[in-house]
Specification:
The complex is a heterodimer. By secondary structure, chain A is an alpha/beta fold. Chain A has two domains: 217 residues, P-loop containing nucleotide triphosphate hydrolases (Rossmann fold, 3-Layer(aba) Sandwich), CATH 3.40.50; 71 residues, 2-Layer Sandwich (Alpha-Beta Plaits), CATH 3.30.70.330. Chain A has ten helices and 13 strands. The radius of gyration of chain A is 24 Å and the shape is elongated. Chain B is mainly α. Chain B has one domain. Chain B is built from 13 helices and no strands. In chain B, helix 2 runs antiparallel to helix 4. The chains are: A alpha/beta, B mainly alpha. Chains A and B meet through helix 1, helix 2 and helix 5 of A and helix 1 and helix 6 of B.
Chain lengths: 306, 288
């Protein structure tokens, strides 16, 4: 059952369209929110967090409308893209103050703030003010305030921005873990390979519209009007190339610098893979590796957006 | 089909019944009271109260005593006139309190972009505004109706008489009504000005300009044209007029007190309207 549903959602600012007729539903797990700058990602997250009223259409989070419904935000955590901290406060103090707004007692808020900081890899006993924090530490603090109450829904806007490689890895692992635990996590990022490490499930926005939604490999399969590239490693690439041309379903073959590798272009992926399986059974060709080159997130993104 | 173990446990502890506005307000009050300027202004306000306690003390002394002659001085008496002076003459102090404890509060949230975190919490915009207004409401109350009513209570206790109430039955209403109007008007103007910028310094400068320039302009134009109607521009003049009206004293300007009251209410409403427009999540397009 979807925990987050968006139906025909539009939001415009005067004549500028922020979102246009977006519809999708999310279930527990991690979904990557992708799109170039100005695609509507931040607008979508602000509508989902009840900060902006939709111009048209509707949003339901855990069955409730977020706009004008502050009680819902006991169950939703939001990590904004921009720095949103008081530099003179310590991280624990800041998060505890925010948790107190959700009705926690002072002691419980401090305890939960400490636990959340630990989970994001920060020392809860760190006393220095956040003004002295690195960008990565501030990101972790924002993330900690979002997940401090283990909300069912987590909306993370570019949580990896400014983090060092170790921080990125740890945060990616944390997001994956949150998804496994059953949170519904919508995480926006413009760094595709990082999203790919978090989830194969994506929501692609472009010019305010939902361009694609689903598993990245399934989305690639749906793109039929563009040839797919498949990298093959085998013992006899020239013989394999000949056999491939004979069997059809291949629009081009090129050899690479590696002597045992060839790249095949096909416009009929299903037929191609079925015949390749037959070829694989033939003696002598020695197909060792089959690697689709363009059903990664980057290729799908490039194809759909550019 | 993804596998989720649903191992997370959402916090289901007991929530406090305290309204979030009060939680936010308490934190804001603590921050305000940590400021040296605010402490100093409260101290100065306390000196006013001590001076009036002195008046009260003199009033209870026998006329033929050592310091009994002091009772013959017209202003050494706690009545409607002196209480009006008590409220009216602290105006500069009230302005300084607004400057010290209110000018920066929303500007800082805009600067540090914390509004979006607040508004994605179980907190409505009115809760946020009330929370941010609480320090000003408290501090201004501590310099206006709280000590004024306390002085009246002390007067009744020390003289064991409610004669003052028989002579000036409007006094409690005048104190509370004028103080409420002053506090609401100054608080809404201060917070509105604070919400107009993300620079705390600029907010303070703007507040000084808003509090002083219209008053100066009103005075100058009224003097040049010999027409008190220009004093409607002046916050000071409007407050003076309403204060005198509530305390049933001679009005200082040839203006309808209803017009000045309407002006003050309009300023308060304009401040609230600005706040409701400015205090929201940053619009993604437009970047306001």
């Amino acid at each position: 059952m979807p925990t987050l549903e968006v139906q025909d959602l539009s939001r415009w600012y005067g004549e500028v369209i922020g979102l246009s007729g977006a519809s999708f539903a999310l279930e527990p797990g991690v979904t990557g929110l992708l799109g170039p700058n100005g695609a509507g990602k931040s607008t979508l997250l602000k509508v989902l967090t009840g900060q902006i009223r939709p111009s048209r259409g509707g949003v339901r989070i855990l069955g409730e409308v977020p706009w004008g419904n502050p009680d819902l935000f006991h169950r939703v955590g939001y990590c904004p893209e921009t720095d949103s901290i008081y530099p003179e406060l310590g991280a624990r103090e800041f998060i505890a103050a925010m948790l107190r707004l959700a009705g926690l007692s002072a002691s419980e808020a401090t305890q939960k703030a400490g636990e959340a900081l630990t989970r994001t890899g920060l020392d809860p006993e760190l006393r220095k003010p956040m003004a002295a924090f690195s960008k990565g530490m501030r990101q972790r603090t924002k993330l900690a305030q979002a997940l401090a109450l283990a909300p069912e829904i987590l909306l993370l806007d570019e949580p990896l921005n400014g983090m060092d490689p170790v921080g990125r890895k740890e945060t990616i692992d944390l997001v994956v873990q949150l998804g496994r635990e059953g949170h519904t996590v919508l995480v926006s990022s413009h760094i595709l390979h990082e999203v790919e490490q978090m989830t194969p499930h994506i929501l692609l926005l472009h010019q305010g519209r939902v361009l694609a939604h689903g598993d990245v490999h399934e989305i690639r399969d749906l793109i039929e009007d563009r040839a797919r590239s498949v990298r093959l490693r085998c013992r006899e690439p020239h013989r394999l190339a000949g056999r491939l041309m004979e069997m059809g379903a291949v629009s081009g073959i090129r050899f690479t610098d590696e002597p045992d590798v060839l790249v095949v272009e096909t416009g009929h992926a299903d037929l191609f893979f079925a015949r390749l399986t037959q070829l694989g059974l033939e003696d002598g060709l020695g197909i060792e590796e089959v690697q689709p080159l363009d059903d990664d997130l980057h290729s799908v993104f490039e194809y759909l957006v550019r | 089909m993804p596998i989720h173990d649903f191992s997370y446990r959402h916090w289901e502890g007991e929530r406090s019944e305290r309204p979030p506005a009060l939680v936010l307000g308490s934190a804001q009050i603590r921050v305000a009271l940590q400021r040296r300027a605010v402490k100093l202004l409260l101290l100065v306000s306390g000196l006013f109260v001590i001076a009036y306690l002195g008046i009260l003390y003199v009033e209870t002394m026998p006329r033929d005593g050592l310091l009994g002659f002091l009772r013959n001085i017209p202003l050494v008496k706690l009545d409607g006139r002196t209480l009006q002076i008590f409220l009216d003459r602290q105006r500069l102090l009230h302005y300084l309190i607004c400057l010290a404890a209110g000018a920066e509060v929303i500007a800082l949230d805009r600067r540090f972009r914390t509004l979006q975190i607040y508004l994605a919490r179980p907190l409505r915009v009115p809760d946020y505004l009330v929370g941010k207004a609480l320090p000003l409401l408290l501090l201004l109350s501590l310099c206006t109706w709280v000590p004024a009513l306390l002085l009246l209570v002390l007067k009744s206790a020390t003289t064991a008489s409610f004669e003052w109430l028989r002579q000036e039955p409007h006094l409690p209403f005048a104190i509370v009504a004028y103080s409420t109007l002053l506090i609401l008007c100054l608080t809404s103007i201060t917070l509105a000005v604070s919400s107009l910028t993300s620079s705390p310094r600029l907010a303070s400068g703007q507040l000084v300009a808003v509090l002083l320039f219209p008053s100066a302009a009103g005075d100058i134009l009224a003097a040049l044209t010999h027409d008190d109607a220009w004093q409607l521009l002046s916050l000071n003049a409007n407050l003076d007029q309403v204060c005198s009206w509530f305390f049933r004293r001679e009005l200082p300007y040839e203006l309808s007190p209803w017009a000045t009251l309407a002006m003050l209410l309009a300023l308060t409403a304009a401040g609230i309207a600005i706040l409701l427009r400015r205090v929201r999540a940053v619009d993604v397009v437009g970047g306001s």
